[in-house]
Amino acid sequence: MIVNLIPCLADNYSYCIIDSVNKNVILIDPAEFSVVDNFLKNKNLVPNYILNTHHHSDHVGGNILLKQKYNSSILGFAADKDRIPGIDTFLKDRETIKIGNLEIETHHAPGHTSGHVFYYLKNEKIAFVGDIVFSLGCGRVFEGTMEQMYHSVNKIKNLAPETRIFCGHEYTKSNLNFCMSIDKNNKDLKIKEQIILAQRKHNIPTIPTTVMDEQKTNIFFRLDDTKIRKAISLENATELEVFSKLRKLKDNF
Ligand code: ZN
Ligand code: FE
């Protein structure tokens, strides 16, 4: 099984899973038709499934035209059935679906939107997280509460450490700057900085990242860290309070 990354729009990533054994082709969040379609034509692929993490147009933009052309079946969270274009199958929280040999778990993780989900392939240790978590950051809170987003980010943080995280955007560089401004003396972050700068200089995606990597470097995963707490003057606060303050600071960074 291979995960292909398809850069779309300004900084989005759509993904294409190719399961060569069972000949299944699954698209995750096709942001736009033309770029994804060109990718498929080049590789001579027909996507039989489309999975969406949430209803935002930069994640579902290709749904309708791809479905018309390839007769793909569209899956998304049941609560968002009126907001995901072309949806055929309504998934529930913690439901596992089987596509060929792939077992895909749906996990509800609200905050960015009320119906946001991530998809976890437990056997392959892969998570498609949309706009819940990014490398060195997390998504903006649009439809939910800080508390919901905090719990949603924790769901990703608590996956198996070796899990590869495929997120919806290349926001790593600006997230890096924010993490560096608060977690100045983090050695792992400094090492990661060198890698990220080299990748971006050559326009190489910084994605996927891993849960383990984020635990060492993403401040939204490190809410109990004394130095981070000190930097934002919240030494004795709850994790939720630390999370909320960091998220608000990032909104205005
Ligand atoms: Zn979004
Ligand atoms: Fe997005």
Please supply descriptive tags for the structure shown above:
9 helices, six-stranded mixed beta sheet, 253 residues, 34% helix, binds fe (iii) ion, alpha/beta, Metallo-beta-lactamase, Chain A, binds zinc ion, 2 domains
Biggest beta sheet attributes: 6 strands, mixed
Q: Structural class of the helices, strands and pairings?
A: alpha/beta
Q: What is the CATH homologous superfamily assignment of the largest domain?
A: Ribonuclease Z/Hydroxyacylglutathione hydrolase-like
Q: What general form does the structure show?
A: globular
Mind explaining what this structure looks like?
- This protein has 253 residues and is α/β, with parallel strands linked by helices.
- The protein folds into 2 domains: 1-92, 4-Layer Sandwich (Metallo-beta-lactamase, Chain A); 109-253, Ribonuclease Z/Hydroxyacylglutathione hydrolase-like (Metallo-beta-lactamase, Chain A), CATH 3.60.15.
- Helix content is 34%, strand content 25%.
- It has helices spanning 33-43, 57-60, 63-70, 146-157, 172-182, 187-201, 211-217, 226-231, 239-251, and strands at 2-8, 12-19, 24-28, 49-51, 73-77, 89-91, 96-99, 102-108, 117-121, 126-130, 133-134, 137-138, 164-167, 209-210.
- A 6-stranded mixed beta sheet has the order 1-2-3-4-5-6, covered by helices on one side. Strands 7-8-9-10-13-14 form a 6-stranded mixed beta sheet. A two-stranded antiparallel ribbon has the order 11-12.
- Helix 1 links the parallel strand 3 and strand 4.
- Helix 5 runs antiparallel to helix 6.
- The longest helix is centred in the C-terminal third of the chain and has 15 residues, at 187-201.
